[in-house]
Specification:
This protein is α/β, with parallel strands linked by helices. The chain folds into three domains: 211 residues, FAD/NAD(P)-binding domain; 138 residues, FAD/NAD(P)-binding domain; 78 residues, no CATH class. Helix content is 35%, strand content 21%. The protein has 15 helices and 22 strands. The strands form seven sheets. The protein has a five-stranded parallel beta sheet with strand order 3-2-1-7-20, with helices on one face. Strand 10, helix 5 and strand 11 form a beta-alpha-beta unit. The structure holds flavin-adenine dinucleotide (FAD). Flavin-adenine dinucleotide binds next to helix 1, strand 4, strand 8, helix 4 and helix 5.
Length: 460
């Protein structure tokens, strides 16, 4: 049986481990050079550092995932630095590009998509200045290159990553100018009983916040970002506090992010239906708790299915592989299946509390100022999208996201709406006076990420 696993993060590693243990040799593809995924991303060989320094409290888990990856890569058809840019579910064929140069197709009978997540951003005036990155990009720079995005960095957004990345920067010796959280303390406090279920993860979160405060880092909660100041580079971050007063810190770089959203374009192209998940305030591909999608032979695991974190990803990867084996008629260990299902259900309760503690600021996204750049690939402002919601385009105003895309080009550029999509949906929904779930989502298109055009070499 030809099995393809896309992604070598925690979910992909555990999926492949389970498949190999059952006697399979899957094709395993990742656009990264090595396994580990986002959380356990590895620096290039020349920049390798001690695991404890790189992954902090997660060092042991990182080493476990890396060691499993090292053991598996030689015994499967491992294809590093290979982007899967298209999937054809009827033909069961993947289109791939290796190192931006070589094209290949991979035929499969069953596929597990473990494609992870990416940051969710809310446009703020000045967010396209050089020196502004997403929270994840700021972390990747530090983790893989040992670089800071600036000498004096401010972080704005919400979610566990906000505090974790600020802590990692401060620990690395960077001056953290401020941590500006858009969620009020009261919201987090109200979610505390559920957060306690997170055990060590919850304690670590409290530790990061306490450490930042104890080391004199300014932490602001319940803030509304006003602007990132600067004309050619970042000069400062401005926000309005919960008391309505404006405040400013000087900084030369800003990391921003409001949680994560699934990287689910391949699932979309595979024909998996999506549903709006109100708690994550996000469109997520449909699958059951074992990762089975309604499209036969296609399974999802990890953050690419729904944001759950690295521990959930490891469990879900193994579970999806077992579902695949079951569907292929192979016998699987029922005790292990039950244990995985129980563990996943337990984690789900903590996840619900996390989502309640750090909600996506939909109202903030919906109220982006008219002149603020919304879709940076196409240079489209929030006001231009609002106009599309009002104007009569012969067929009436843009009634949903894909029509708005046709009218305005929102989400039509290099990022294909991966960056601007969530905020654009809020802007359009608010303009139409409708619920965001009712205006749809930008459909996935191939190539799922920007890729070089390959020009055949001229024959002499
Ligand atoms: C930038 C970033 C930083 C994060 N940092 C932390 C952190 O410090 N602590 C924490 O607890 N959580 C962090 N998270 C969340 C955490 O990474 C995830 O919860 C966890 O890694 C999920 O594991 P996964 O296997 O589902 O996905 P990932 O670990 O994201 O792995 C997905 C893999 O799929 C590959 N991939 C995706 N699409 C394609 C494609 N089309 N073709 C080929 N390969 C593809 C990617 O290269 C990646 O290696 C971070 C997330 C992001 C996005």
């Amino acid at each position: 049986m030809r099995i393809a696993v896309i992604g070598a993060g925690p979910a992909g590693v555990r999926a492949v481990e389970t498949l190999v243990a059952a006697g399979h040799r899957p094709v395993w593809i990742d656009e990264a050079r090595e396994g580990g995924g986002r959380i356990y991303q590895r620096p290039p060989q020349s920049l390798r550092r001690d695991a404890r320094m790189l992954y902090g409290f997660e060092a042991r888990k990182a080493e476990g995932v890396h060691a499993t990856f090292e053991r598996l890569a030689p015994v499967v058809d491992w294809r590093p630095e290979t982007l899967v840019w298209h999937i054809r579910p009827q033909a069961r064929r993947l289109s791939t590009q290796h190192q931006g140069r070589t094209q290949a197709t991979v035929d499969y009978d069953a596929a597990i998509l473990c494609t992870g997540a990416m940051d969710r951003v809310v446009p703020v005036p000045g967010w396209t200045l050089p020196g502004v990155t997403t929270m994840g990009a700021a972390q990747i720079a530090l983790k893989t290159q040992g670089c800071s995005i600036g000498a004096r960095v401010a972080f704005v957004g919400t979610g566990p990553l906000l505090y974790l990345v600020a802590y990692q920067y401060a620990k690395a010796g960077v001056t953290v100018a401020a941590v500006v959280d858009t969620t009020p303390f009261a919201t987090k406090f109200a979610a505390a009983p559920g957060l306690l279920r997170g055990g060590a993860t919850f304690v670590k979160g409290i530790y990061y916040i306490g450490w930042l405060r104890a080391h004199g880092v300014r932490v602001v909660e319940g803030a509304t970002p006003v602007a990132i100041n600067g004309t050619t580079d970042v000069q400062g971050l401005r926000w309005r506090g919960s008391d309505g007063r404006e405040d400013l810190v000087a900084c030369d770089a800003v990391g921003m992010g409001w949680g994560l959203k699934p990287e689910a374009q391949l699932a979309d192209l595979a024909g998996v239906p999506f549903r709006f998940e109100p708690l994550q305030h996000s469109w997520i591909p449909e699958c059951d708790t074992s990762g089975r999608t309604p499209v036969e032979g296609h399974y999802l695991a990890g953050d690419g299915a729904a944001i759950g974190g690295a521990d959930v990803a490891e469990l879900a990867g193994a579970r999806a592989a077992l579902a695949l084996l079951q569907d292929a008629g192979q016998s699987v260990d029922a005790v292990r299946v039950a244990a995985l299902d129980r563990a996943l259900a337990g984690q789900q309760r903590f996840r619900i509390a996390l989502e309640r503690a750090f909600p996506y600021p939909a109202a903030l996204a919906a109220s982006v100022a008219d002149e603020t750049l919304l879709c940076r690939c196409e240079g489209l402002t929030a006001g231009e999208l609002r106009a599309a919601a009002r104007e009569d385009h012969d067929v009436g105003p843009a009634p949903e996201m894909n029509r708005a895309k046709a009218f305005t080009r929102v989400g039509m550029g290099r990022c294909q709406g991966r960056v601007c999509g969530p905020a654009a949906a809020e802007v359009l929904a608010a303009s139409l006076g409708r619920d965001v779930a009712s205006i749809g989502r930008l459909r996935g298109q191939s190539p799922v990420k920007p890729m070089p055009m390959l020009v055949p070499e001229a024959t002499p």
